[in-house]
Specification:
Elements lengths: L7 H9 L8 E3 L6 E3 L11 E3 L2 H12 L1 E8 L4 E8 L4 H7 L2 H5 L3 E2 L2 H17 L1
Antiparallel strand pairs: 1-2, 1-3, 4-5, 5-6
Helix pairs in contact: 2-5
Length: 128
């Protein structure tokens, strides 16, 4: 079940970006292991919350209007991830994002690796 939670490094980055949503798990430094809270949801400023991937992606959609999309490229049998700014119209997005830019997106071997790359990219965009 631990692989349902985002890794420690990304949880720390989300905390720095202001993430403070109720979660079932947390990281208790210096441990990078998720501890589950059996009595309900956690939300605390001092702890590093461990959101599920779906919580993190929802938070980026709701707070920053950014959506991560994971695709599969059958010709190379790899997954890739793309970030969409949901505030842009189709034309604006096309002008901003050329095919060359689209092809630069990370390509990995598994869906789970693509999910993590997508999360890293979302964090990087917001930090900028």
């Amino acid at each position: 079940m631990e692989n349902e939670f985002i890794p420690y490094e990304q949880a720390l980055a989300l905390k720095e970006l202001g993430f403070n949503e109720p979660c079932f798990g947390l990281y208790a430094p210096p441990s990078k292991t998720v501890f589950l809270h059996h009595y309900g949801l956690l939300s605390a400023k001092e702890q590093i919350l461990a959101p599920l991937y779906q919580q993190a992606f929802r938070w980026f959609r709701e707070k920053y209007n950014l959506r991560g999309f994971i695709g599969f490229r059958p010709n190379v049998k790899q997954f890739d991830c793309h970030i969409y700014d949901m505030s842009l119209s189709g034309k604006e997005y096309t002008e901003q994002r050329t095919m060359e830019e689209f092809n630069k997106d990370p390509k990995v071997g598994t869906y789970e690796e693509a999910e993590l790359e997508c999360l890293k990219k979302l964090i990087s965009i917001v930090k900028q």
